[in-house]
């Protein structure tokens, strides 16, 4: 009888382990696919997308106090500022530029351990010498300030390069 109980317990534990593993994998993959379909990234009527209510986003345009960051000002011509920003992004850990136009840059930045993806956007309006920015996590409610720290580190790097 005890052999039968031991076999049942092992089978039950394997089933539970498999269910937990399957749940974890699907929760990491499915929200990203759902999110990607409705991301709303990019520039619309001269503005980056507003942040959601969650605490995992910062933006320099039309933001409430919780989500607001200052745009980055520059004193070079726009193309030089853009090229300098692109160089800075090459040294930001786990960050890859995936889209760029003359007035817009979209990069993905992944967290070190769990590889959560954040979207980092930069917009260069033609009528101002500023870089508007937005950094937002794709999943979760809080990022523990990661997006805000990232954009401030990028700002400091650009200041050091005297743009």
Task: Draw up the topology in text.
Elements: H1 2-37, E1 43-44, E2 47-48, E3 57-59, E4 72-73, H2 78-89, E5 95-101, E6 104-110, E7 117-123, E8 130-137, H3 146-160
Antiparallel strand pairs: 1-2, 3-8, 4-8, 5-6, 6-7, 7-8
Keywords:
163 residues, 6-stranded antiparallel sheet, alpha+beta, single chain
Describe the structure.
This protein is α+β, with helices and mostly antiparallel strands. Helix content is 39%, strand content 23%. It is built from 3 helices and 8 strands, in the order αββββαββββα. The protein has helices at residues 2-37, 78-89, 146-160, and strands at 43-44, 47-48, 57-59, 72-73, 95-101, 104-110, 117-123, 130-137. Strands 3, 4, 5, 6, 7 and 8 form a 6-stranded antiparallel β-sheet that branches. The longest helix has 36 residues, at 2-37. It is elongated, with a radius of gyration of 21 Å. The N and C termini lie far apart (77 Å). The model is unreliable at 26-38 (pLDDT under 50).
């Amino acid at each position: 009888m005890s052999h039968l109980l031991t076999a049942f317990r092992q089978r039950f534990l394997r089933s539970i382990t498999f269910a937990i593993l399957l749940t974890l994998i699907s929760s990491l993959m499915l929200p990203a696919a759902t999110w990607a379909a409705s991301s709303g990234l990019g520039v619309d009527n001269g503005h980056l997308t507003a942040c959601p209510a969650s605490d995992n986003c910062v933006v320099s345009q039309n933001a409430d106090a919780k989500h607001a960051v200052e745009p980055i000002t520059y004193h070079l011509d726009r193309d030089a500022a853009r090229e300098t920003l692109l160089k800075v992004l090459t040294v930001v850990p786990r960050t890859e530029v995936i889209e760029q136009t003359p007035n817009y840059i979209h990069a993905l930045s992944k967290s070190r351990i769990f590889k959560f993806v954040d979207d980092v956007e930069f917009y260069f309006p033609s009528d101002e010498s500023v870089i508007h920015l937005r950094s937002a996590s794709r999943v979760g409610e809080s990022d523990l300030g990661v997006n805000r720290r990232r954009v401030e580190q990028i700002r400091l790097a650009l200041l050091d390069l005297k743009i």
